[in-house]
Amino acid sequence: MKAVSELRLFLRVVELGSLSAAARQLEISPAVASATLKRLEDKLDAPLLVRSTRSLRLTPQGELFVAHAREALRQVEEGMARMHGTQRVGRGKLRISAPSDFGRNQLLPWLDEFQEQHPGLEVRLQLTDRITDLFREPIDVALRYGVPPDSSLVALPVSTRFRRVLVASPAYLARKAAPATPQDLRHHNCLRFVVGDEHPYSEWRFHSSAGGDVIVKVGGDRISDDGEAVRRWVLAGHGIAYKSWLDVGRDVLSGGLRLLCRDWPGELVPMHMIVPNRRLLDGTVHALRDFLQRRCEALPLPPDDR
Asked: What is the dihedral of CA 164, 237, 224, 158, to 10 degrees?
């Protein structure tokens, strides 16, 4: 299907800002990519991109066409996925990226069970808390907290039940009185993490029972770009953490951590399965998403949220 290949190349060039990078990702030569793009421009009788040795930008015609190209490709790929999805369930390779803490403490045993149900599936798992560039890295699906900022990605909700919770270990609370309100966190050692950039997540948001949100700027002597490191620090008694219930729920229920400021609900942290485009929404991806939704739904909520 030449028309589909042409649209796919054009959109990938726009996303990456480079014809050669798009060619590498689509596993074609730069010469073939250039000829394919030229063929599309000839069909439209309009230039789509202005190219030089160091830069590439959309022409006015290209800016007009790109939205139509995305929608046309989306519909074709969705139709193809629906036609062939059932034939591909549980076969081949699935490359998954997931947050470090959630990946180690929840996802790993779940994937064991999923692969038992689909023995023909090979899973390649990347555990990282940095924001994965799905257009540049060899990842099929990424599991991420929050709403993805890039609207060109496809985000499928996995769970919207869980909030961040304030937690500390009994050892820490034996040394220092538990905060009565979020404002008291200014007097505590708060364990922070970094996601996406060099700035730690230091403004913790809570919902007030009187209505509205309260944001508290916190500080502390430990910062990491690994969520599992923060979890280990809080379990070891080094301070207070503000993490998704998905990450620390089992520690609370086992007594390793205690919930703090229960009258001040933390912010919701939905979990999404993100794919770079609908072409990857085959039967295996849909099956994995349904499986994870069921596992998340079966998890107990914090005592005050039941």
From this structure: -30
| Interval 142-197: pLDDT, tens | 898 887 666 667 888 999 889 999 999 999 999 999 999 999 999 999 999 987 66
5: confidence class by pLDDT, cuts 50, 70, 90? confident
How far is residue 213's CA from residue 258's CA, in Å, rounded to a whole number?
A: 23
> How many other C-beta atoms are found inside a 10 Å radius of the C-beta of residue 162?
22
Convert the pLDDT of each residue in 194-234 to its tens digit: 876 667 889 999 987 777 789 999 999 999 989 999 999 99
Q: Which two tokens stand for residue 225?
A: 């770009």
From the list 254, 291, 298, 248, the residue with the least C-alpha distance to 110 is 291
Q: In terms of DSSP H, where are the helices of the chain?
A: 2-16, 19-26, 30-44, 60-84, 100-102, 108-117, 170-175, 227-235, 245-253, 283-298
Taking the mean position of all CA atoms in its chain, how far away is CA 209?
A: 30
Q: Whole-angstrom Cα distance, residue 109 to residue 298?
A: 14
* Verdict on whether the full-model pTM lies above 0.90: no
- In this structure, the strands spanning 223-224 and 213-217 are unpaired
Tokens 């299907």 sit on residue? 1
Please give the angle made by the CA atoms of 38, 42 and 45, to the nearest 5 degrees: 135
- Quickly count: other Cβ atoms within 10 Å of residue 5's Cβ: 15
Question: What is the total residue count of the chain?
Answer: 306
